[in-house]
Amino acid sequence: RRMINASAFSQYKILCVGHACIDMINMCASYPEEDSKVGNSTKINRCLDQHWQRGGNASNSCTVLGLLGAKPTFFGTIADSHEKRFLLEDFAKFDVNTDYAVIHEGCDSPASCIILSAATGSRTIVHSNKNLPELSVEDFNKIDLSAFQWVHFEVPCDMSMGRRWSKCKQQ
Fold it and tell me: Taking every annotated instance into account, which residue ranges of this chain make up the domain Carbohydrate kinase PfkB (predicted)?
């Protein structure tokens, strides 16, 4: 592995390809038992903290790269829903370029409900993506990849984006 000097890191233009969503974080004293009510009618195991944040692997990678001084660009799909403003403003806080984000009208924003246990440090993630499509070959064809020194992929388990990438390179 080659280590990158932090000051030199700022010259790298990095494209992060993948996912952005809304993470709804719920910190509980301990993991709730199945079929229990957390914090509704009793203070037992009431949620200690709850907040929204931007999530998704490629989205999170952009944040870390921005904090390290790189020039990250997010390339993924975003729903033209009420969460879009939150996502784009949060990217901007970390100097993440979103010029290549593909906005889809009539879609819902993907969301993850995350339950964190303060007692064990474990987490459980329940993710939902109702109808936001993945990037297409046509989306890739609109980008000049030579403008980037590094392209970072976060691919779905079925490797569909990897197959799309192979097709893009062949065209």
Answer: 13-160
Cα gap 99→46, rounded to integer Å: 41
The answer to pTM > 0.90 is: no
Query: How far is it, in rounded angstroms, from Cα 164 to Cα 75?
Result: 14
pLDDT in tens, 30-81: 888 888 776 666 666 678 899 999 999 999 999 999 998 888 999 999 999 9
Tokens at 119, concatenated: 């007692």
- Residue 146 carries which side chain, given as an amino acid letter? S
Q: Is 132 strand, coil or helix? A: coil
Closest CA to 165 of 134, 128, 123, 121: 134
- CA 29, CA 82: separation in Å to the nearest integer? 31
Place of tokens 């109702």: 130
Give per-residue pLDDT as tens, 119-156.
999 999 999 999 999 999 999 999 999 999 889 988 65
